[in-house]
Design a protein that fits this description.
Keywords: Membrane, Transmembrane, Transmembrane helix. InterPro entries: DUF2273. This is DUF2273 domain-containing protein. It comes from Enterococcus viikkiensis. The chain is an all-alpha fold. It starts with a helix and ends with a helix.
């Protein structure tokens, strides 16, 4: 089982993400799901920007 998980990690992750996306499409609708994905991508981009520029390092070390 451990060999399978280490060998096929990316397909498993993509499968789980696809399942979550399908559930969101059916429960909250297409446009709300797209908005949720867009806001998540913006949040990740802001987080990467803050980490790369060390803007909040002093604040988070306290």
């Amino acid at each position: 089982m451990q060999e399978y998980l280490s060998r096929d990690k990316l397909p498993l992750i993509c499968g789980v993400l696809g399942f979550i996306l399908a559930v969101l499409f059916f429960t909250v609708g297409f446009f709300k799901t797209i908005l949720l994905i867009l806001i998540t991508v913006i949040g990740v981009a802001v987080g990467i920007y803050l980490r790369n520029n060390h803007i909040l390092d002093d604040y988070l070390k306290k």
